[in-house]
Write a structure and sequence with these properties.
Chains A, B: Zn(2+) binds at residues 258, 261, 360, 419. Chains A, B: This is Histidinol dehydrogenase. Helices cover 48% and strands 16% of the residues of chain A. Chain A is globular. A 6-stranded parallel β-sheet of chain A has the order 1-11-10-9-12-13, sandwiched between helices. In chain A, strands 6-5-4-7-8 form a 5-stranded parallel β-sheet, with helices on both faces. The first copy, chain A, has 3 domains: 28-229, Rossmann fold; 235-358, 3-Layer(aba) Sandwich (Rossmann fold); 396-428, no CATH class. The first copy, chain A, is an alpha/beta fold. The first copy, chain A, has 18 helices and 14 strands. In chain A, a hairpin with a 2-residue loop joins strand 2 (105-110) and strand 3.
Chain lengths: 434, 434
């Protein structure tokens, strides 16, 4: 794990300006071919890609009620501890998400004028859940529950099947606990295309959310605009700000938990104490060989692991804001005050015991978070992602006539004379009642 | 103006499923070339494209304080009525947008646990304002004010210059009234690229908003992910639901005001009264020749104008929800009750006097609205577009240890053992205070 000072770090960063979206065109040919095939040939193309990429020779993309219930019951009775843990996590997620649900409003700035905002759920949402060797029941809970809390009618999951055509029963169980209305055995760009444009089996949805590999991310970018998408997720990151009141073993364990996600994950420790930096580094080296996913972790830490020494807290906060980390742990003294100064971060974990996996699995706030500096402009996934707003405007005859000239003046200035006419016709020929 | 019944309309629509984003690849080669050139060569490329596309041989992209102030003063003294109208509109917009500003929250589900959501403004925003022959001061007000109300530090405008290198003084005046912090003479895909990646003159922004032509829309799609964007705007639409309590001349004038935007604008009247449909049609024909932008209007109405006759109110509302119109006018009896049944619409205008131009210019709610059916999943532009959320999580030592086993159980089930370890290390080696 590299230790470097603030200036050195900042110099390296500004030399590699981010233009990620422009750099990923290499996948476009393949992704576009898949999207077009699913658009044109529906289920048939979707099944063919599933055979090609997932090696699963299935004949139906839908998970039957029976298959779903069997999986649910097998986990409920066979793994009661896991079942209970998922149920408890779901309850926390539901509780937090309910707090984020917005209500519309109405107000009357003067008699005869009523303005408002109406907030309504989306009709149909698709949640992409990665599959293959991994199993992510937590992703199911985190992405489905906010949609259910929002009041979305249909919340369907797509996830790639295993070669024998089955799905992980834990994922299916989480889907039921979360309240999903359907599950489909399909992954990759073909899943995104099927959700965006609909097939014989899959409903056309209004929004696609959830993490996926590079193909999924790129396909989401292509269909964006025809459907909504949550965000284009990049590799995961953690930034932990700590001082010598925090056991270095805690900091090291948290950084390494991030590193196990993938070789391109980023783990950064920020501190103002050079001696402490060395202690964290030693702990990192001590713990790596003890961990199951040692190889991935070592590669990730070597490539992207950094301990950055800042002159003081002010500089550390400036650094954190420039990184805009997905996960930020404020672990040391004064953490509560530091929260106020943080401008950009996906989720902020406060104190030495708020370890990132607590948020990943259990606490309630979403673990689907903006990566790669996009916390500068994006939010955690939430109920607000599954609702949209409509403005309402009601003017009486009298009030419209009061302001008719003002409106006509602006319309004329823009050269939109038919706009002016729509107001003028009411002014000059006002025979209807309000 | 075509009159048709509900069934005929629905049949036509389902035969042309929307896959707009996939169909606009024809522009990509040119758009990508422009984006790459601006990324690589900055101002020099931006100035070259400005000369090529806007015929303006300028040497600086920035509008100077002097140029800006001169424009402002010339309108303030030379066109006092327009100046007053823009100021009044700005005040209404500000008042409405303030109502939509969200606050964060904190709650404690049990002692030792504190969860919350922190809401902060973006740092820098770019607003694209179309230029050329047209002048859109209302777009400036509508797009800049929500960002200013959100608390964004830098709100900059880009708009293409006229061939003599100048900008419309009315646009510059609106920019000052709205509270923009800078204006740049650049349009098209080159403006989007400059805002997304920064140049010597233009700041790299966090989000790009505002309407533009096909190049602008496509460039926004390409840079999306590296920066946030508002939406990919399509042609404008109106849908007016009316009955014989509403003068047909009002309905006609409103439909025609929409039609004057462009040949591809869509104007739809919905009614349950076949005789009334004929009256509206007659009014349309009567009014068209009286309007300045007759040619555009006639083409738009011929191509996309429709009066659709429904069996009853229920069917009409179903139709409206399937269209998810950008602008919806509920003009007839029972309008207030109909609002409750509308699921998808950008802005809803209630009653015979709430004509669309009232909302376009003056009432306060935003006129930047989701087009082309995207009201199914998108909202009007608002303060919420210029703020983002961070979750906060604070667990005490005791509470983390209470739930340690639950968290470890889920982490192990996902095979993420380093995640489990980060919790375990605190359980087994809990020597720090909370």
């Amino acid at each position: 794990m590299q230790i470097l000072d603030y200036e050195t770090y900042q110099q390296n960063v500004t030399n590699t300006a981010k233009a990620t979206q422009m750099m990923q065109q290499n996948l476009d040919e393949q992704v576009l071919e898949i999207i077009r095939a699913v658009q044109e040939r529906g289920d048939e193309a979707a099944l063919a890609y599933t055979k090609k990429f997932d090696k699963a020779a299935i004949t139906s993309l839908s998970v039957s009620e029976k298959e779903w219930n069997n999986a649910f019951n097998s986990i409920k009775t066979g793994q009661p501890k896991l079942f209970k843990a998922l149920t408890a996590a779901a309850e926390n997620i539901r509780q937090y998400q309910k707090k984020t649900k917005e209500e519309g409003f109405q107000f009357s700035p003067q008699p005869g004028i009523q303005l408002g905002q109406k907030i309504t759920p989306l009709n149909r949402v698709g949640v992409y859940v990665p599959g293959g060797k991994a199993s992510y029941p937590s992703t199911v809970l985190m992405d489905v529950i906010p949609a259910v809390v929002a009041g979305v009618d249909q919340v369907v999951i797509t996830t790639p099947p295993r070669p024998d055509g089955s799905l992980d029963p834990v994922v299916l169980t989480a889907a039921k606990i979360a309240g999903a209305t359907g599950v489909y055995k399909i992954g990759g760009a073909q899943a995104v295309a099927a959700l965006a444009y609909g097939t014989e089996s899959l409903p056309k949805v209004d929004k696609i959310v959830g993490p996926g590999n590079a193909f999924v991310a790129r396909a989401k970018k292509w269909v964006f605009g025809d459907v909504a998408i949550d965000m284009i997720a990049g590799p995961s990151e953690i930034c932990a700000f700590a001082d010598n009141t925090v056991p270095p073993s805690y900091v090291a364990a948290d950084l390494l938990s991030q590193a196990e996600h993938a070789e391109d994950a980023t783990s950064i420790c920020v501190t103002t104490d050079a001696d402490y930096a060395e202690e964290v580094q030693k702990e990192i080296e001590r713990q790596i060989p003890l961990l199951e996913r040692e190889e991935i972790i070592r590669e990730s830490i070597q490539a992207n692991g950094k301990i950055i020494i800042c002159d003081d807290e002010e500089q550390a906060i400036e650094l954190i804001n420039s990184i805009a980390p997905e996960h930020l742990q404020l672990m040391g003294e004064g953490a509560e005050e530091q929260v106020q100064k943080v401008k950009h971060a996906g989720a902020i974990f406060i104190g030495p015991y708020s370890s990132e996996p607590l948020g990943d699995y259990f606490a309630g706030p979403n673990h689907t978070l903006p990566t790669n500096g996009t916390a500068r402009f994006s939010s955690p996934l939430g109920v607000y992602d599954f609702m949209k707003k409509s403005s309402t405007i009601h003017y009486s005859k009298e009030r419209l006539l009061d302001y008719a000239d003002t409106i006509i003046t602006i319309a004329d200035a823009e050269g939109l004379t038919a706009h002016a006419n729509a107001i003028r016709i009411r002014k000059e020929n006002n025979y209807a009642s309000s």
